[in-house]
Amino acid sequence: MTELPSGLEALHNVANFPSIKPTVPERITGERLRFRTIWISDIHLGTKGCNHELLIDFLDHTDSDTMYLVGDIIDGWRLKKKFYWPAEHNDIVWRVLKRAKRGTRIVYIPGNHDEMVRPFCGMNFGGVEIRRAAFHDTADGRRLMVLHGDEFDTVMLAHRWLAFVGDAAYHAMMKLNNWVARARKALGLPYWSISKAAKHKVKNAVEFISKYEEVVARAAGERGVDGVVCGHIHTAEVRDFFHEGRRVEYFNDGDWVEGCTALVEHFDGRMEVLHWAEEVARRNKSERKAA
Ligand SMILES: [Mn+2]
């Protein structure tokens, strides 16, 4: 293969991973938290926004029979503008490939930020199945549709801006907001309306998220499945909807830029959102107690 897109090239470089050692050594813990299934998405490798520290911790403390990578794993949009690929991002790819080698079934569903991987759908890459979408059967017999979720942006064109929530520009804007507020205060100027604009955006965001969840759940209902798992909007959620009198469950696994969450299925089919920052805090507390 010649001329691989930048994100894939990085993936390709670590594909022969046994010969490469991660810079952050794998934390070998006695027992990993075991799940039937793990869903993670919106990692945005290749951006400063990616919280690689928490994600590496998550990957070192968990295991599952199946793991779905639900899109926006690599941020090709940002990489195209500016190449940013710290060693820790290789470490994440290394850990995913190692999981595949250990026997975890890995299904990678590219999103809109890693759409350069979409032409490879149907292929198997280093033990990772690349798919456009998938169906997952839970232990208690529910059928879930798994997709990234940007498909529904076309239904809601007015709200496309939210797809950029994970983008560094968003963080830069938030930083600028803080800086402007402080500078104005120092100059004795009143608090400026940028906060009002931000609040308006947030209110819009709340409405958008609710509407988005509804649209996705409706699409799942129309396809006759029991539920849907997606990512894309960086908002983890478990929510029940009804479609023609039938229950349709909506699951969003969140992201690793702001929320740092994963969706898991326990061995009895129970679904749960894990907030990894909270899990780490709890672990540190119990370790301190033990010491
Ligand atoms: Mn997305």
From TrEMBL:
A Pfam entry, by short name: Metallophos
Domain Calcineurin-like phosphoesterase residues, every copy: 36-235
GO cellular component, one term: membrane
Residue ranges the record marks as coiled coil: none
Keywords on record: Cell inner membrane, Cell membrane, Manganese, Membrane, Metal-binding
GO biological process: lipid A biosynthetic process
Protein origin, superkingdom: Bacteria
KW Transcription regulation (keyword) present: no
Claim: Manganese is one of the keywords in the record: yes
A molecular function GO annotation: metal ion binding
PANTHER family in UniProt: BLL8164 PROTEIN, UDP-2,3-DIACYLGLUCOSAMINE HYDROLASE-RELATED
Protein name as annotated: UDP-2,3-diacylglucosamine diphosphatase
